[in-house]
Amino acid sequence: MGLCSSLLLLYMVLVCFVNDVLSGRTSSFTRSEWPSTDIPLDNEAFVVPDGYNAPQQVHITQGDYDGKAVIISWVTESEPGTSEVWYGAVEHEFEHKAEGKNTNYTFYNYKSGYIHHCLVDGLEYNTKYYYRIGTGATAREFWFQTPPEIDPDAPYIFGIIGDLGQTFNSLSTLEHYMQTGGQTVLFVGDLSYADRYEYNDGVRWDSWGRLIEKSAAYQPWIWTAGNHDIDFRPDLGEVSTFKPYMHRFATPYVASQSSSPLWYAVRRASAHIIVLSSYSPFVKYTPQWFWLRGELKQVNREKTPWLIVLMHVPMYNSNEAHYMEGEAMRAVFESWFVHYKVDIVFAGHVHAYERSYRVSNINYNITSGNRYPVPDKSAPVYITVGDGGNQEGLAERFSKLQPDYSAYREASYGHSTLELKNRTHALYHWNRNDDGKHVPTDHIIFHNQYWASNRRRRSLKKHRKFPGHASLIAKYEELFPVLV
Ligand SMILES: [Fe+2]
Questions:
Q1: Is 9's pLDDT higher than 80?
Q2: pLDDT digits 0-9 by tens, 143-176
């Protein structure tokens, strides 16, 4: 081959490579299988368990910092009953008892049932626990699995769901997620959309609690608050924000020294998960700002290599819906995310799917002239998964030109899964709800941000010391072309 043809070949290979790496993809596929209307209240998806005052809307969340506790929550409609949880590691033998508390609230003309929260702590790692709530003939039994001990190579599967609501599309998303083997849900805000009803009808908070029970009673859902969870209605005399949300969904915020249930952190397996509130003050010197600054300093990537942030409003979003709404928080927190090498920031709010490349815009200030986000190896990947399926429908209008930072975007319903394999690699899928089937659509391999830039990591990699490392890389790099 002559020099000219060799150069031409090299040029073509480079062009292909650059196109592959730098240009994003806007999928023309949009999918809304069912109408964007809520499931009727008498549908079996919202079935009320049989019997007087039977516990309903059962859900659990992590109860401490490291995963040795759960908070079990449920509602009894007619009377408080008991807030006890009986539990144990042997089925039908509930040798331990934990005592919880109950609360209730009114919202204009709605009066909630009795909402129980019970902390069950001192659990063993990696153990299946069975639990029973309620009394007599209407007692109900469930189970959950505790996570592995905090360890940099502990494998774990998270699901990511946002803006779920309660339509048949929502149900489809939930059921598809339940087929994935996901062990914990990272929920990025906007739960029931009860605020779309007259007087923010609390009945739709109750139906949502029953909708998600088939997953949330058996595995933790890590809660993030969204705008549809604010329930601020001064015209109805309802001025305390997040009232139904905070009564119903407990979070272990005290364990991470947070002053509010709306922002907190948990560690689980090999992940450190930070939850932020887009609708609470976050500028410099606010409680959330102080807390996040302290929490980021505490992250130990030697123990929890995967640093994940959840928030409702995306910082990078090229959809016309909610365009630039995350800009204020980006201006405050983005430089920290880059400094601490956050792996992924998950958000919701925009009812579509979008994934960014690793970019930052931290050099911008009003005089720098640096106006555009630029590739930045230390930056997180930003993923918007506000496509759970609520009654507001899809956000189908992306900006005409896909910005350079945007890698993939599609206006369809779905959810994501993140499989942490060890300290260096994770597999990520976005799964579209496609004609009632679960279709993995956008999939990539994540290279851990801490271990990927760490000299010791590189020498360890050379010696193939991580569990399954060599075979895993070979297998998945074959299957998934995109590595970030
Ligand atoms: Fe939202």
A1: no
A2: 999 999 999 999 999 999 999 999 999 999 999 9
Residue 310 Cα to ligand 1 midpoint, Å, equals: 13
> If you measure from the C-alpha of residue 11 to the centroid of ligand 1, how many angstroms do you get, rounded to a whole number?
45
Q: How far is CA 339 from CA 203, 272, 289, 318, in A?
A: 44, 16, 15, 24
Encode pLDDT of 264-309 as tens digits. Answer: 999 999 999 999 999 999 999 999 999 999 999 999 999 999 999 9
For the stretch 402-412, pLDDT in tens is: 999 999 999 99
Residue 351 falls in the annotated catalytic set: no
> What one-letter code names the amino acid at 337?
F
Report yes or no: 108 and 199 within 8 Å, Cβ to Cβ: yes
Domains of the chain, each with CATH number or no CATH: 151-189+262-453 (3.60.21.10)
CA of 51 to the centre of ligand 1 (A): 36
Alpha helices in 402-454 (DSSP H): 449-452
The answer to whether the CB of 156 falls within 8 A of the CB of 421 is no
Burial (CB count within 10 angstroms: exposed 0-12, middle 13-18, buried 19+), residue 66 = middle
Whole-angstrom Cα distance, residue 230 to residue 166?
Answer: 18
Identify the active-site residue in 59, 116, 322, 429. Answer: 322
Q: CA 196, 199, 205, 211 torsion: positive or negative?
A: negative
Q: Which residues surround ligand 1, an ion (CB under 5 A)?
A: 190, 226-227, 349
Furthest C-alpha separation in the chain: 87
For ligand 1, the distance from its centroid to the CA atom of residue 302, given in whole angstroms, is 34
Does residue 427 carry a pLDDT above 90? yes
This prediction's pTM: 0.92
Contacts of 408 (CB under 8 A, 6+ apart): 24, 25, 26, 27, 353, 354, 355, 430, 442
Q: How many residues does the chain have?
A: 484
State the distance from the centre of ligand 1 to the C-alpha of 252, rounded, in angstroms.
23
3-state secondary structure of 274: strand
